[in-house]
């Protein structure tokens, strides 16, 4: 007869064996989610809806960075989770496809395909290859070109849309790994160069507008250039250097660019009719993007209008069917669902609580010495993209807090706003933090992964904060920027 003790001794090892069969990554993910739940449940400042939304957001960040699950599926599943848990209405899902960023990216894909099919991208590629023979010089040229676009295209997503087809044309000249690195380098340079000019991002204009209405101060276009260009150039140089040292294959930068592809054929002197149409369309698009604040239609609408013109029967550059096929719909669904996750944080009050806690933290830091004050301000603004994914929302939430903080300690609100806006421009940790990153994310084998981005950000985020502090106590102080 088997005793109860013997039966218990037999069943226990079986249970342990079954537990041991579960893969360690799954156990780690489950453990992290249990920790999230344990930390969020007791939070008295959040209601039920807010707790569910925050848990879903933390889960999304974990699954994006720690698994190979499709990013779009993760975002969509967690939006459905929020709705099933009655933390938000089904309209959260439906409204996600009506977001401007969704239509901006659809238009950008169509324009990119038109740019490629017309032959204009190939012409520019051959021109670049004829002047820069090695991969290292070509990478430097790409970085310089992307940096320069900050001065005449007032949108990071617009710059990314312009750069994408050119990089696709250059892709055949680089190995698969090098193409992945380029897919990180392009949006990284675009984001780092944003601080060069007041037109570099819509958040700058929002921040200056809030500064004018709330504090009666402003930052002129020229003064921003004086403060912004050197910092943006230094940040871009550090970014390119970090990507080269940590991600680019060893001893490949001095390699001569391959010329054994169809693109190496001589460039025709005369432009074809499709090329002329595309050049005219791109020129009109640039004018539309640059004059966004005047005509008021928005960058997404301008982009879709350009895409519709590119697909116009008889007079367009490509057919409607080809244009729609060029859209990466898995990426579009990811963008829509990820944007809805950010919307859920706002709707459920999570952002309001974060703003309240952040304001209290900054007020407590107000009695600190100046160097610590600048360090805290830089750290808070740089890390804000981790919990407020929208660049515009970051400005709307943080700028009033920074103005209130500056006034309470007798500091200059304009300086606090400038430092905050420059810090908010850093958003390289997650693809969802920037539309420029999303345009290059999950595009086949020649794209970066969320893990690549997180590793790079572990190096660049501290470097960016340190650079802000260094510039404040040197160049910015010398040119009149003081708290």
Automatic annotation (TrEMBL):
Transmembrane domains' residue ranges = 21-41, 53-81, 101-121, 141-162, 182-201, 221-243, 301-320, 327-346, 358-380, 392-410, 453-475
| Primary localization | membrane
Where does the record say this protein resides? Answer: Membrane
Q: Name one GO cellular component term.
A: plasma membrane
Q: Membrane: present as a keyword of the record?
A: yes
> Has the keyword Membrane been applied to this entry?
yes
UniProt GO MF annotations:
transmembrane transporter activity
Its topology with respect to the membrane? Multi-pass membrane protein
Q: Which UniProt keywords apply?
A: Membrane, Transmembrane, Transmembrane helix
> Any idea what this protein is called?
Anion transporter
**Species of provenance:** Bhargavaea ginsengi
The lineage, from the top, is: Bacteria, Bacillati, Bacillota, Bacilli, Bacillales
């Amino acid at each position: 007869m088997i005793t109860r003790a013997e039966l218990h001794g037999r069943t226990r090892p079986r249970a342990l064996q079954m537990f041991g069969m579960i893969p360690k990554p799954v156990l780690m993910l489950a453990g992290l989610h249990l920790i999230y739940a344990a930390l969020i449940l007791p939070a008295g400042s959040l209601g039920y809806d807010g707790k569910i939304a925050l848990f879903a957001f933390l889960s999304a960040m974990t699954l994006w960075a720690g698994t190979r699950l499709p990013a779009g599926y993760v975002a969509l599943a967690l939006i459905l989770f929020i709705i099933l848990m009655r933390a938000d209405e089904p309209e959260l899902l439906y409204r996600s496809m009506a977001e401007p960023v969704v239509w901006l990216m659809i238009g950008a894909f169509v324009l990119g395909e038109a740019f490629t099919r017309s032959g204009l991208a190939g012409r520019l590629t051959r021109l670049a290859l004829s002047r820069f023979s090695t991969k290292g010089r070509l990478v430097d040229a790409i970085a310089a070109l992307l940096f320069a676009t900050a001065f005449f295209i007032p949108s990071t997503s617009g710059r990314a849309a312009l750069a994408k087809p050119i990089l696709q044309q250059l892709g055949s000249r680089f190995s698969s790994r090098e193409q992945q690195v380029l897919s990180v380098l392009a949006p990284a340079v675009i984001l780092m160069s944003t601080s060069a000019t007041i037109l570099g991002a819509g958040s700058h204009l929002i921040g200056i507008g809030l500064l004018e209405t709330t504090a009666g101060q402003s930052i002129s276009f020229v003064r921003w250039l004086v403060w912004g260009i050197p910092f943006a150039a230094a940040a871009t140089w550090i970014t390119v250097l970090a990507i080269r040292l940590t991600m680019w294959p060893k001893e490949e930068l001095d390699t001569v660019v391959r010329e054994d592809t169809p693109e190496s054929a001589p460039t025709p002197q005369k432009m074809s009719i499709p090329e002329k149409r595309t050049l005219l369309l791109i020129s009109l698009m640039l004018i539309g993007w640059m004059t966004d604040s005047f005509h008021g239609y928005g960058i997404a609408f301008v982009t879709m209008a350009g895409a519709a013109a590119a697909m116009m029967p008889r007079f367009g550059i490509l057919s409607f069917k080809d244009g729609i096929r060029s859209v990466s719909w898995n990426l579009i669904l990811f963008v829509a669902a990820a944007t809805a996750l950010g919307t859920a944080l706002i709707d459920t009050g999570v952002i309001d609580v974060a703003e309240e806690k952040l304001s209290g933290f900054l007020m407590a830091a107000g009695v600190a010495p100046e160097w610590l004050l600048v360090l805290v301000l830089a750290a808070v603004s740089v890390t804000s993209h981790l919990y407020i994914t929208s660049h515009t929302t970051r400005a709307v939430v943080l700028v009033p807090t920074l103005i209130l903080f500056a006034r309470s300690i007798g500091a200059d609100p304009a300086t606090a706003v400038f430092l905050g806006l420059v810090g908010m421009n850093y958003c390289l940790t997650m693809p969802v933090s920037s539309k420029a990153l999303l345009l290059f994310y999950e595009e086949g084998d020649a794209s970066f992964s969320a893990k690549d981005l997180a590793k790079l950000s572990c190096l660049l985020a501290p470097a960016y904060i340190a650079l802000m502090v260094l510039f404040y106590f040197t160049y910015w102080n010398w040119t009149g920027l003081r708290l």
